[in-house]
Design a protein that fits this description.
The chain contains 32 helices and 13 strands. It is an alpha+beta fold and about 700 residues long. It has a domain at about 485-705.
Length: about 700
């Protein structure tokens, strides 16, 4: 047979042809993953999104000043004038890992370039970890399927392209490593190896939590899994010390990280791990002391826990003797909270996953995971089957169901559903392959070879279709997006230097102690690339400041001037996205819509707690006369509304909004550089000044006129 063909021997190890196949598939999976995730570099070799810029600056601080100084660092460019305690409020292990690997592997590479490559490397290495994890659960074949599916998973691709130097790539890497170490540890026959793996699992679990707080959702399936072990394993003497060892290690190591210890150990996350571990010990003790009805007594204890736990959580909702996680974590556990916090809801990655998106993300894997669940449960009825053990099947099902549940609230959390579905789909595919190419467990006869060829063709077609259809929603097309700083996070599929030039202007043309006010999206860019203090950034440490900025932008110019001075701001930056129409007229005409502040203004109003009807027309998007003429944001936007037009029939026009029509705007700078208004326009990006037909990314920087004399 193929697997028995020996190629060479190294000591007592025989390197066989099947080992070469495994290596080949893993190299293929790594290469596919790396190439797909590297596509954004075609638009520009830059960091992607917002958070990576702060993470880069934090890593640079470690490289320049050392690890000890990092833990004492208070960043004065963030949340001016309060600053930010970085080690207490950041993904510490992400910064430490990046700095450490840069010292080892960076060579003469620029740190900025190194952090751009960092996420794609760790995301691609994760295909090896998912292989190892699923191999422990269901064997080598299942592991190989998982590595290939992981490399092309759209939710995972979206959250780990090149330049995505933020939480998920490293967090998922450490999570997979932790779960692999845990499962292989409790399956080990050697106590010394088991101890080593379980201690490693606890360390990597803490690392994963420090790299990404969202990994607390990995604790949920692990905790539920612990609840099932007394009923699925007979080696109670083994699990009664291995599970506490892992739990205690996780808790002890967590004490070394301020953010993890405060948000995890003494919160619901830690309880979700500690309580199941205590239950396991208690259940094993009760079962060992019971002369009969051992399983029943254990189930009664579990029932009591399931009654007591919700009761405690209900009491805790009022007294909060257990610290509650932030709103977005509670939101994932309770989908009914989705619309109760506009600040959380305003973030695009916190959007609720639609049914269409779920089918796009997982497509045929849903089919294979469903088949896998059915066949695997059916397989449990067959004695002497060594394909998958009951406890490993239990963990796979728990991870799959919990992943799908928590991901139903936020698009960002689809990575958890993806991992769970990949594992179940890999097990389902493996079971089908065994059924068609190995002996049938019932008849002990191989299935007809006539069915084998159509089976292989059918599997290949089903797995290939999502790679090419729908045309604009394949893994290749979805991952081929420009870095956010190249298109401002707009819907335009292009790359410009508008933002980079604007941030460079800030660095070169404003005083070093200048303070920049802007919507919180752009805070990290301003502090990292512009090297100036910002009032707010993406960390949402001081949400009241974000609310104050929203109110300031919607207040009258005179009142807003007072607000800006109270916040000690020297400059105000806004971003307006639109498109210059290809019309042969002396004057330029624009459509304002694409993802700038003009598209976010409704969120400003919700976060400020203002009545939207005062500022927006009936369509919920177009600004009213009051917005354009009476608010600071409306006056800062250097455009004026001319009227509305039917995009399908340009001759159909209206001075007031009519359903189906869009607004047409012309340039109108209300706060010129030489004026006596509250603000003075000191910078406008090139795509606004050059007036090229097509997309326009307008970054406008206003200086606060300290000599302005408000009328009121």
């Amino acid at each position: 047979m193929l697997s028995s063909t020996k190629l060479l021997s190294v000591g007592t190890f025989d390197f066989k042809l099947n080992h070469l196949l495994v290596i080949g598939v893993l190299i293929l999976s790594f290469s596919i993953s790396f190439l797909l995730r590297s596509q954004p570099a075609d638009f520009g070799f830059e960091l992607n999104e917002f958070d990576p810029f702060f993470n880069y600056r934090a890593t640079q601080y470690i490289v320049d000043n050392g690890i000890s100084d990092y833990f004492e660092w208070r960043d004065n460019l963030s949340w001016y004038p309060f600053g930010r305690d970085v080690s207490k409020t950041s993904q510490v292990i992400l910064h430490l890992t990046a700095a450490s690997t840069y010292w080892i592997f960076g060579g003469g590479m620029n740190l900025y370039d190194f952090t751009i490559l960092f996420p794609v490397i760790f995301a691609s290495l994760s295909v090896i970890l998912i292989f190892a994890l699923v191999r422990v659960i269901g064997g080598t074949t299942a592991g190989l399927f998982a590595s290939i599916l992981f490399s092309v998973s759209i939710p995972l691709l979206i959250r780990s392209p090149i330049g995505w130097f933020k939480s998920e790539p490293l967090g998922i890497f450490f999570s997979l490593l932790a779960v692999y170490s845990l499962l292989s540890g409790i399956n080990s026959q050697n106590k010394k190896i088991a101890i080593l793996k379980l201690v490693s699992a606890g360390i990597f679990t803490t690392f994963s939590l420090s790299a990404w707080g969202g990994n607390q959702f990995f604790i949920i399936p692990i905790g539920i899994f612990f609840l099932t072990l007394p009923f699925l394993r007979t080696d109670h003497k083994f699990i009664v010390w291995t599970i506490p060892l892992y739990t205690v290690t996780t808790i002890i190591v967590s004490l070394g990280f301020e953010r993890v210890s405060s948000n995890f150990i003494f919160g619901l996350g830690g309880v979700s791990l500690i309580v199941p571990a205590l239950f396991l010990i208690s259940c094993v003790f009760i079962q060992n002391k019971s002369s009969k009805n051992k399983t029943r007594n254990g189930l009664l204890l579990l029932l009591a826990l399931l009654i007591i736990a919700p009761t405690i959580l209900l009491i805790n909702s009022d007294s909060q003797f257990l610290p509650l996680p932030s709103h977005r974590y509670l939101n994932a556990l309770n989908p009914f909270l989705t619309t109760t916090n506009p600040l959380v809801d305003s973030v695009s990655e916190h959007a609720t996953t639609t049914l269409k998106q779920s089918f796009l993300f997982h497509s045929v894997l849903m089919i294979f995971s469903g088949i896998g669940i059915w066949l695997l449960i059916k397989n449990l009825q067959i004695k002497n089957s060594s394909f998958i053990k009951n406890d490993m099947l239990s963990f796979s099902l728990i991870l799959g169901f919990v992943g799908v549940y928590v991901s139903s609230t936020f698009v960002r959390l689809e990575v958890f559903a993806s991992i769970g579905i990949i594992i179940l789909a890999s097990l389902g595919l493996t079971f089908l392959v065994r059924e068609f190419f190995q002996n049938d467990y019932h008849s002990k006869k191989p299935l007809s070879k006539i069915l084998q060829i159509p089976f292989v063709i059918g599997i290949i077609i089903l797995l290939t279709v999502p790679m090419v259809y729908p045309i604009n929603s394949t893994p290749s097309s979805v991952s081929s997006m420009p870095p956010t700083i190249m298109n401002g996070g707009t819907s335009f599929h292009l790359a410009t230097n508008d933002w980079l030039d604007a941030l460079d202007w800030i660095k070169e043309n404003t005083p070093k102690d200048a303070v920049i006010a802007s919507w919180w999206d752009y805070g990290y860019w301003i502090s990292t690339m512009g090297e100036r203090a910002s009032l707010a950034d993406n960390s949402t440490i001081h949400t009241h400041i974000i609310e104050n900025i929203a109110k300031m932008l919607l207040n009258s110019p005179d009142i807003a001037w007072y607000n800006l001075n109270e916040m000690q701001a020297d400059y105000v930056l806004i971003f307006v996205s639109g498109e210059k129409l290809n019309i042969d007229t002396p004057e330029s005409y624009y459509i304002l819509s694409g993802g700038g502040d003009e598209s976010k203004k409704q969120w400003f109003m919700k976060i400020a707690g203002y009545d939207l009807s005062k500022y927006l027309e009936a369509d919920g998007i177009s600004g009213t006369d009051y917005f354009w003429n009476e608010t600071l944001l409306g006056k800062m936007t250097p455009f004026s509304l001319l009227g509305y037009v039917n995009p399908n029939n340009p001759n159909q026009q209206s001075s007031t909004l009519v359903s189906g029509m869009i607004g047409i705007y012309k340039k109108d700078i209300k706060f010129p550089a030489d004026g006596d208004e509250p603000l003075r326009l000191v910078y406008a990006s090139s795509s606004f000044t050059e007036e090229k037909v097509g997309p326009m990314l307008g970054i406008f920087i206003y200086e606060v006129n300290k000599d302005f004399k408000p009328l009121s």
